[in-house]
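ESCALATION

Customer reports they have been waiting on this structure for their group meeting. Please prioritize. Original submission:
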Amino acid sequence: MAGTVSVKAVVIIRTLLYAAITITSFIIFVPVAISMGKFSGDCLLYSTKVTGIHITFGSESNCVYIIATSVVFNLVFGLVLTGSGVVTLIGRPNPLSDLTSLPFLLNVFLDGLSCAFIFISGCILSVGLKETCDAITSGSCSSAAVKVSGGSTYFFYGHLSTAQVAVWVSFILWLAQLGVALFTLWRLGKLCCGRYTTSSETPTQQTPTNQF
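Update from on-call: job pushed to the front of the queue and completed.
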């Protein structure tokens, strides 16, 4: 039989997760953008060493993808959905507070889509940083440096490793967000593998427990 859930508890958890996701966006795109700014828009990921501390840069699209997904999914979507949760918690009408509505189902689909795009972003960043480190140094990458315009050197690992950690934290948060949503739908019997009534039970319609 389908169970009941507390709308308020679900909204609080999801709002906190969206707020955390929004914060990670800055920790991802700012360091990557700084690294690109050091080289007039070139991307350090998947770079190869030519001579000395001079390198051949990887495709700019790798860094652009990471920045774009972070801004669109983590910052924009995260901020909008955090605001939506706050609106619900202060008692204003919000279609997303109906956990069986089409808007909520679309929200869950967006969670899954965001999770997939951020996972790809994490893979691009992790593999690209490793390849750059392997090409530039045989030792610790934390002390590796590349030459920038003006003759100075740039120790890139600090920025890119920070973004790498943030993107995987972001992925875990999106995964948790998706898990909360799917568990909620399962409890309400809205999934194909939901909790159905048995043949000996009289079917009854269950609705979310609204504690607002």
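Sent to customer with the following note: The helical segments are 7-37, 60-89, 102-136, 157-187.
Escalation resolved.
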